User: Fold Regulatory protein, RpfE type from hydrothermal vent metagenome.
Amino acid sequence: MRSLDLVIPGLLGPFSTEISANFPPHIHQQLKEVDFHLLKKCLTRARLKTNHCTSYYSTLVDRFSGALAVTENKLAQCELTARHDGIDTSSGFFYRADPVHFKAESDHAILLGSELVLPTDNEKNALISAFNRHFLQEGVCLHASHSLRWYLQVDRPLNLKFYALDYSLGRDIKHFMPEGEDALWWRRILNEAQMLFFQHELNTLREANGQLTINGLWLWDLTAELPSCGQLRAQTEKGRARSENNRKLQKVYADNAVSTALASSLAEWASEQCNHLPVEHYNDQDTFEPDSLIVVEQIYASVCYGDIEAWLNALREYCCEHLPRVVNMLKTGQTDEINVYPCDGRVLSINRGQLIKFWKPLRNIESYFSVSE
Assistant:
């Protein structure tokens, strides 16, 4: 059976309990407009299933798991993107340490991500050089080939519990700083780095130009589980039917997701282990090759920051410009099924027969929202 998988983080939240309980009436009203009719039809008529993937990263890794085989059954996001960025991780231990802005409020600071800071290559190189000179005797240094993704190299594994960058955006940083035996060590490194960056002439110039300063680093990593070589071999030997996870992907379509580069990174790794897996920009497509993966990040940032207005605008754009092309493939028989992954532990699957069940009353989009922890 031919199918298309759509991974769309932020499609249905998750929104905070406070936002969900006090959803603006004008947003409710706009979600009833014709722009969202096709999405409501797909949600209402789809079969709802559950899976174990409750984050964007774990969902995406799960969709590639049939093409990835590793010696351990987990894959660290830092390791994955470092390979993509050409960072040599053969010695030492590496963690993501992305450039961010800590926005000062009256009694706390809010985390703003690197996609809002947008350092230039010159700024990246200058700040990393200053950091590495300052911490030369500490056994730590920064590396980066992409201005939005920086890496901290240390000479020992850090005993820390991390909070992923996307999970922490727009929140009070004191609740999401790394925790564990090395927490105080990292606080000291971060405090010194903040003073170093604050005094740097590039940040002085950014502030004079009305830009957000690069006044912090967000230390983090994230792992996702996937089958090991032995597990995949055991499944084959037992004669199990090929699951949707093991279906061979033909192509990956992604939006301009330069900040995370997750889809491209996974496709590159999969290409090293099996046949070449091309990645194309989905905005350039009128139709999509069956048995392919479509990754849509354009809605996600607004949910991370809890910006309902921005979420509505991004969702409207997707529903008007992109969703009709996918659904049209189902209507015309170019694919047999569409599987939508909102990255919250649910899968919504719809085939052509379900799509034409016109007698089934449509439900409000809000009834499908997920709530964050």
